[in-house]
Amino acid sequence: MPPSLQVYEERGARILSKSLWQTKCFKCIWANIANVEIQWDFDRDIKKYRFETFCYGPKSCKYYKMGRARTVPYKNRDSALDDGYLDELCTEGRDEDE
C-alpha cells in the first residue's frame, strides 16, 4: 500500500526525470506523476496545467536523476527556470536516507 498523501506532503518532492519515471521508477511507491497548476496570468487569475514527474523517495536513491530543468511560463513576463533549487527547499527537513 502506498503511504497517505500527508506522508508525501511531509517528505517533499524532487523533480524526477520523465524517462526514469517511465522505466526504473514507475513501480516505486515514491515516484509520481501529477497535473501541476501554473498561475499563467496573475491579472485575470488564468491558470495552465501540465503533467510533471516527482520523486518523494530517499535522497540517497541510486536511480534518482533530476532530468532537464523546467520552465514556468508567465503571460507578459519572463519565464522562470526551476533548475532544482526548489527540490532543496522542499526536502531540507530530511536526511539522505529518508
Give a description of the structure:
With 98 residues, the chain is α+β, with helices and mostly antiparallel strands. It has one domain (5-91). Helices cover 19% and strands 30% of the residues. It contains three helices and five strands; from the N terminus they run αβαββββα. It has helices spanning 5-11, 18-22, 85-91; strands at 14-15, 31-41, 46-55, 70-72, 80-82. Strands 1-3-2 form a three-stranded antiparallel β-sheet, with helices on one face.
Keyword list:
3 helices; two-stranded antiparallel sheet; 5 strands
Short overview:
The protein has 98 residues and is α+β, with helices and mostly antiparallel strands. The chain contains 3 helices and 5 strands. It has one domain (5-91).
Topology:
Blueprint: H1 5-11, E1 14-15, H2 18-22, E2 31-41, E3 46-55, E4 70-72, E5 80-82, H3 85-91
Structural class: alpha+beta
Q: Using DSSP, what is the number of strands?
A: 5
State the domain count.
1
| Major sheet strand order | 1-3-2
Helix content: 10-25%
Strand content: 25-35%
Order of helices and strands: HEHEEEEH
Gyration radius (Cα, Å) is 15 Å
| Number of continuous helical runs | 3
Q: Main β-sheet, in a few words?
A: 3 strands, antiparallel
